[in-house]
Design brief:
The protein has about 230 residues and is an alpha+beta fold. Helix content is about 10%, strand content about 25%. The longest helix has 22 residues. The radius of gyration is 46 Å and the shape is globular. The N and C termini lie far apart (about 155 Å).
Length: about 230
């Protein structure tokens, strides 16, 4: 055998030896022929930060507030009736100025006051200093001084359904304070002409309101007091 043949034979033997070792270690022909490619692990998604997508509202905004979404159902605007009060019942009230006969009281509820509002109260004329009486049992809810009404009293009756308003007072009766319990006929103030009343015509401005469920002294539906006053 020539020297070249020996080199070829030796190379073949070495190749077979290498293959045998590789197979002994658990390899395969595919592993030999194909390079091994390692797949990189997926990188975590970046924090998107605040969203600029107007269609995706923050979690704190209800879906109903998203433009184009179905609006929420409107609440029932009619308040539930107070179960303690007959809806058709009307309070019967004492004429709240001492010594004034019913025949001298005029119904001024619908009288105009300016071009845009009604009086919605009674003006009971009487000399300055005449005692003002509680028209019914109740609680003094608020003592208040206003530009129009002057010295005023808001009284709630016991069920909290009705409010009685006394205005243009000259003074409060001694002992009258917010939270004071009063009985029908108690003296609570004195007729005057404070506020926008004419000093030459002292009188009691007397109004009645049906309170809202919130029972706020400054709100309520005006009710004509004239039919509610007891006749002699």
């Amino acid at each position: 055998m020539t020297r070249a043949g020996l080199w070829v034979a030796l190379a073949a033997v070495l190749a077979l030896a290498n293959a045998a070792v590789f197979l002994w270690r658990g390899g395969s022909a595919h592993d030999v022929a194909s390079p091994v490619v390692t797949e990189a692990a997926p990188s975590p998604a970046p924090d998107p930060g605040p969203s600029d997508n107007a269609a995706a509202p923050p979690a704190s905004v209800p879906a109903a507030h998203v433009p184009g979404a179905e609006p929420p159902a409107a609440p029932d605007a009619t308040p539930a009736p107070d179960p303690r009060v007959d809806a058709h019942a009307s309070p019967r009230l004492l004429l709240p100025v001492q010594g004034i006969p019913f025949a001298d009281v005029r119904d001024t509820f619908d009288d105009a006051r300016g071009s845009e509002r009604r009086h919605e109260a009674l003006d009971i004329m009487a000399p300055a200093g005449t005692p003002v009486l509680a028209a019914a049992d109740g609680t003094i809810e608020k003592l208040f001084t206003s530009d129009r009404g002057g010295l005023t009293i808001y009284q709630f009756e016991p069920t909290g359904t009705w409010s009685y308003y006394y205005a243009h007072l000259q003074a409060y009766a001694p002992g009258i304070a917010e939270g004071t319990q009063v009985r029908r006929g108690d003296v609570i103030g004195r007729v005057g002409s404070t506020g926008n009343a004419d000093p030459a015509a002292p009188h009691l401005h007397f109004a009645v309101f049906r309170l809202t469920p919130e029972r706020q002294w400054w709100t309520g539906a005006p009710v004509n007091p004239y039919p509610l006053l007891e006749r002699p």
